[in-house]
Design a protein that fits this description.
This protein is of the alpha+beta class and 280 residues long. Helices cover 29% and strands 24% of the residues. The strands form four sheets. It has a five-stranded antiparallel beta sheet with strand order 8-7-9-14-15. Strands 1, 2, 4 and 5 form a four-stranded antiparallel beta sheet that branches. A three-stranded antiparallel beta sheet has the order 3-12-11, with no helix packed on it. The longest helix is centred in the N-terminal third of the chain and has 24 residues. The protein is globular and about 55 Å long.
Length: 280
């Protein structure tokens, strides 16, 4: 089937741009490590959010979430993290709720440092989690790893998304289709939209080429049951319609001439090293 590329131009990044984003990505990775360490029964989600806000302040980073208003809610997001539990998929608002043994905790956060952005999310089991919930987390991580491995091998995004979707569905889980990833750079949301699934319309009208310089926030969301979701009365929190658990993982990924770089990898992780051949 003939593909038509997206109409909005994609902003390709230089090695220098990616290095700036890598510095922001290290701060996001540090924030998520802190969240993992705090993810214990009895800890309130507001306390996790406050710790990340303090970390950003200490690094001179600006939260990309706090105060964000897409223009559809009339209700700016009030926190530096999205913290969602169990059947909540994404965009949960931190508050007085305490973590309990067996919870699935989803934390999404993003910051801007020196004018450049990075965005990532993790799903963390709290205490002792049932086997099927743990399997959901592991499959989501494998789906994201599929994207990391395939971006450098494929010409079109739909070829990557198809493999991500297959990985999820072969495990018996469903990909959320109402929310997708995005390009990222000096703004949190840039072209293109980055779906984690494939439709005929995507292949025909919305596909995009994978070429060195593209930077994407790839964020698969997997449901244990049906793919349908709904937004709660706070205008932000998204939950599964059937009440079954969901998980969310994300990395900011850059494609260079030598392969994929995980810009939100931990500091010191070689997967975050940017290797761009010198012209000569």
């Amino acid at each position: 089937m003939q593909r038509r590329e997206i109409q909005t131009p994609v902003s390709l990044k230089t090695a220098g741009d990616m290095q700036m984003m890598r510095e922001a990505g290290k701060v996001v990775a540090k924030a998520l490590r802190l969240c993992r360490d705090m993810a214990k029964p009895g800890v309130k989600t507001a306390d996790i959010n406050r710790a990340v806000e303090d970390l950003y302040a200490a690094h001179g980073a600006v939260s990309l979430f706090k105060g964000y208003d897409p223009g559809t809610t009339g209700n700016p997001f009030p926190a530096v993290t999205c913290i969602s539990l169990n059947e909540q998929v994404v965009h949960g608002i931190p508050g007085g709720r305490a973590l309990r043994d067996g919870d699935l905790l989803k934390i999404d956060t993003a910051c801007k440092l020196n004018g450049w952005c990075a965005d990532a999310a993790v799903s963390v089991p709290v205490g002792t989690v049932r086997a099927e919930r743990m399997r959901l987390v592991k499959v989501a991580e494998a789906v994201l790893q599929t994207a990391i491995e395939e971006i450098g091998r494929r010409r079109w995004w739909s070829e990557v998304a198809q493999r991500m979707q297959r990985k999820a569905e072969e495990a018996g889980f469903k990909m959320v289709e109402q929310y997708v990833g995005h390009g990222i750079g000096q703004d949190m949301h840039e072209a293109p939209q980055v779906p984690n699934y494939v439709t005929k319309d995507l292949r025909k009208n919305g596909d995009f080429r994978l070429e060195p310089g593209i930077v994407l926030a790839v964020e698969p969301m997997l449901n244990m049951g049906h793919s349908d979701v709904e937004v709660l009365s706070d205008h932000w929190t998204v939950r599964t319609r059937d009440g079954l658990p969901s998980v969310h993982v994300e990395h900011t990924l850059a494609l260079t001439p030598t392969g994929v770089v995980i810009l939100t990898a931990d500091d010191g992780d070689p997967r975050g090293d940017i290797k761009w051949p010198t012209p000569g």
